[in-house]
Amino acid sequence: MIGRGLARIGLFLLMSLIPLQMVRAEPILIAHRGASGERPEHTLASYERAIDQGADYIEPDLVLTKDGVLVARHENEIGGTTDVADHPEFADRKTSKQIDGVEMVGWFTEDFTLAELRTLRARERLPDLRPANKRFNDLYLIPTFEEILKLVRAKEAETGRRIGIYPETKHPSYFAKIGLPHQAAMLALLSQYGYENADDPVFIQSFEVGNLKALRAATRLRLIQLVDAEGGPADLPGTTYADMLTVQGLGDIAAYADGVGPSAAMILAPEGPTALVGRAHDAGLQVHVWTLRMENSFLPAQFQRPDDPQGRGDFTGYVQAIAATGVDGVFSDFPGQARAALSATTH
């Protein structure tokens, strides 16, 4: 109880550092890979649970198959998120590749046709951290992007509300180099399901720059430049994300994107909010922050609860502190709990 009391005091002090004019309406809630804290990520079950919990948008990370079909996986390497290692017929597909300068070993979607991928089943990516999710292992297929769009349409008809799509193009320059570009297939499907204009509930995101610029020339859908505290875009060697987040850099982003997607630590430091949200807003950019998770291992120290039997911290306090910085959107693995925290802040 003392630990929780100190955490609440810390939250009060942290909130007191946030100017009143920065407190905004409830940010949009983006279900990170679906309700991935409760179901294996990037499955129709995960997306549907997120929608049922009130997420405004669901986020599919998009990679491609050998025959050019967009499917949802966090990475094109699928050894950790499927049962592919248990399929002897695919043992010879295991290989080593350089993806954006990083050596990766495993099985890759671009080496499988869609029909072959459909023989696999999804598994929990973080089994040690989320052991309860293992009970859903081997139940769900790898979904195609079109299946996700069909699910959204069905849930819209059921609930009577619009449900947004927030796809991320994963490793777009890598896929383009091997003859499997994202853009045409993704835009064609979005158009087929009625997503074409800036007021449609779609954001397309990428850590790279070139594909966002190409998308800006091809679509009126909104675009988000993802950034991180370290490194830089894989397609712009020598450019860092820090360079892109200066006043000049944010102005350059505003020429081709509608917002930026920074990590949570970039907008809420231990001593209080950083200046990034204000700088981005001054440039006319929205700010959608990733990724809010309940586990202590993902939380800043002031929101951790080391004595919690589930290994979870003060998630409500964390979500509310992030929202109070004035961000326009938040990604979360736990959309139900994030929705409750956001609603308690604004009502």
Automatic annotation (TrEMBL):
<dbReference type="InterPro" id="IPR017946">
    <property type="entry name" value="PLC-like_Pdiesterase_TIM-brl"/>
</dbReference>
<keyword id="KW-0319">Glycerol metabolism</keyword>
<keyword id="KW-0378">Hydrolase</keyword>
<comment type="similarity">
    <text>Belongs to the glycerophosphoryl diester phosphodiesterase family.</text>
</comment>
<dbReference type="InterPro" id="IPR030395">
    <property type="entry name" value="GP_PDE_dom"/>
</dbReference>
<protein>
    <recommendedName>
        <fullName>glycerophosphodiester phosphodiesterase</fullName>
        <ecNumber>3.1.4.46</ecNumber>
    </recommendedName>
</protein>
<dbReference type="Pfam" id="PF03009">
    <property type="entry name" value="GDPD"/>
</dbReference>
<feature type="domain" description="GP-PDE">
    <location>
        <begin position="27"/>
        <end position="342"/>
    </location>
</feature>
<keyword id="KW-0732">Signal</keyword>
